[in-house]
Amino acid sequence: MSYSFVKPLVVEAKANTRIESAKIRNRRMLKKFNGTPRRTRLSVFCSEKQLYAMLVDDRNKKCLFYGSTLQKSIRDDTTCSTVEAAKHVGEEPVKACVDLDIN
């Protein structure tokens, strides 16, 4: 008697690490949203302690505006709370857009 043994089919799922997943997600997002000189992309990053905002022109690969809570004008104001500092950072890109004639 000849018995043929069939190996069981084992499927392994490839799990992306957290950093790889973020890179993949960022690449997919940049396909949809590209900043142009007339219509820039607003990039906002919020860490535990700081807030950063950038206006990006992806066609020319330039940062048109950069603002954060680490700027001297916001940092020197000791009466400013975290929420008020975030409001100041949010208002600055709007002023920059008006100066640069960006919609």
TrEMBL record:
Protein's UniProt keywords contain Ribonucleoprotein: yes
Classification via InterPro entries: Ribosomal_L18, Ribosomal_uL18_bac/plant/anim
Coiled coil: none
The keyword Protein biosynthesis is annotated on this UniProt entry: no
Any Pfam family hit: Ribosomal_L18p
Keywords of the record: Ribonucleoprotein, Ribosomal protein
SUPFAM superfamilies listed in its UniProt record: Translational machinery components
Assigned protein family: Belongs to the universal ribosomal protein uL18 family.
Protein name from the UniProt record: Ribosomal protein L18
